Amino acid sequence: MNRDDQISQMQDQSKIWDFIVIGGGATGVGIAVDAASRGYQVLLLEQDDFSKGTSSRSTKLVHGGVRYLQQGNLSLVIEALHERGILIKNAPHIVHNIPFIVPSYEWWESPFYGIGMKIYDALAGKHGFGKSEVLSKEETLARIPTIEQDGLKGGVIYWDGQFDDSRLVINMVKTAVEQGGTLINYVKVVNLIKKSEFVTGVIAHDIENDKEYELKAKAVINATGAFTDSVRRMDETEAKPIIVPSQGVHIVLDKTFLPGDSAIMVPHTADGRVLFAIPWHNRVLVGTTDTPIDDISLEPRPLQEETDFLLEHAAKYLEKDPIPDDVRSIFVGIRPLVNLGDAENTAAISREHSIIISRSGLITIAGGKWTTYRKMAEETLDQAIQVARLEYRSPVTENLQIHGYHRNCEQFGILKPYGSDAPEIESIIREHPDYSKPLHPRLRPLTGEVIWAVREEMARTVEDFLSRRTRSLLLDARASIEITETVAKLMAKELGRKRSWIKEQVADYRKLAEGYLIK
């Protein structure tokens, strides 16, 4: 998958695409996969890198949503559990099941949560990942020896799904391209084209080559997440905002805080949110917060009170209390929640998605959750087909394997997340003796993975590689800073960049990564 090849696909500006999708996160790329696999001509444009925003900053869970079960939103839970089953079937190299423990510190909690989890099991039906059980104190400690023991009565175990969000997006991009789609990062849509007051295309700026394109389409789809309203205002300058953004913060700790393969789920914290402590890539991810914000940024930053909240709550449930110096990285995602009514706070707004078609035909998909991206894409495209007045073709993504699909990818060791691509990466590693070396002793990626990311995964910057093609930035921000120059030099050689590019990349990345460290 090569960016220059993808750019060449849109050189003919007289071409009329069936669909142009704005936004390269989970929803936009999901729509591109759906459209291409149905045989439509689809072009996706992303202003930065694929999954740069919310889609790479999730809690890394493929789940039905225990919180929605508490709220009584059974339809959303059932849909998400169904989609969870489809995801693990179609992308087993990225999605896997994981046990969660709900600790009990009051006598009533184990039977209460035990009943709830049995309902969760029943709603999952044939898509279940494992049966829930009530655990004794001893069984709970056997699963999580580092849990806070003072007052511990026992716990409940249930099963859900885990994944690497940005790795899945990259594999989805490759899937869409294989199906005939054209997807390009670093192309920003700067305006919409209208004819007779109907949206007929977009004006897009290729940031890398500093070139502008006028691109025509039978329908344009706005799938820009937190930036939804900015695209809607290109269509209607007075469009009433529908996005009510909030941010969720996660801290990353060493594996010693939560050894083993079981996660902790706390159903109710002081702010009413669910709290997770999850093993992920040999680290522990603790999250999340829900803080209303006014400003939407590609690089949101945590508030001090959010950091304090996570450290305080982690200390309540972990035997070893984490302090700021223990935090390897802290990252923030913006939830693009949709409020078409009068909900008073972001915690009360549903994660269900909304599809809006403007008077000029702009199709906007907003809201939703990672787990249900495929269903959201399917429903959005069904609407877009009507707007574009195209012949209807049935969706096929329910049974479409995601690129990299491999049932036994454990055999590839640390290259497991690449699935069926792993043998090709191994071939690249054999090209040069240094390619088999880890980039850093505290990080997993090998030197050869940089070469692969540039050649086959459209990585264009150091950040693309360290933040999203691998998760180095999120797992250990300081270690990632220490290898910035090494990665920049490797990428520069592959991309044909000059020394000035290396210098600029190093400076830009170090400045960005500093924001992932607790000061």
What does this structure look like?
- This protein is α+β, with helices and mostly antiparallel strands and 519 residues long.
- It has three domains: 3-54 and 167-242 and 350-399, FAD/NAD(P)-binding domain, CATH 3.50.50; 84-157 and 244-338, D-Amino Acid Oxidase, subunit A, domain 2 (D-Amino Acid Oxidase, Chain A, domain 2, 2-Layer Sandwich); 409-514, Orthogonal Bundle (Helicase, Ruva Protein, domain 3), CATH 1.10.8.870.
- It is built from 17 helices and 18 strands.
- It has helices at residues 3-9, 26-37, 66-71, 74-90, 109-124, 137-143, 165-178, 228-235, 304-317, 373-388, 422-429, 447-456, 462-469, 472-475, 477-482, 484-495, 499-514, and strands at residues 16-22, 42-45, 61-62, 96-104, 133-136, 154-162, 182-184, 187-195, 198-206, 211-222, 243-254, 263-266, 275-280, 283-287, 291-292, 329-338, 353-357, 363-367.
- The strands form two sheets. Strands 3, 4, 5, 6, 11, 12, 13, 14, 15 and 16 form a ten-stranded mixed beta sheet that branches. Strands 1, 2, 7, 8, 9, 10, 17 and 18 form an eight-stranded mixed beta sheet that branches.
- Strand 13 and strand 14 (283-287) form a beta hairpin.
- Helix 2 runs parallel beside helix 7 and helix 12 (447-456) packs across helix 16 (484-495).
- The longest helix has 17 residues, at 74-90.
- The relative contact order is 0.15.
- The model is unreliable at 342-350 (pLDDT under 50).
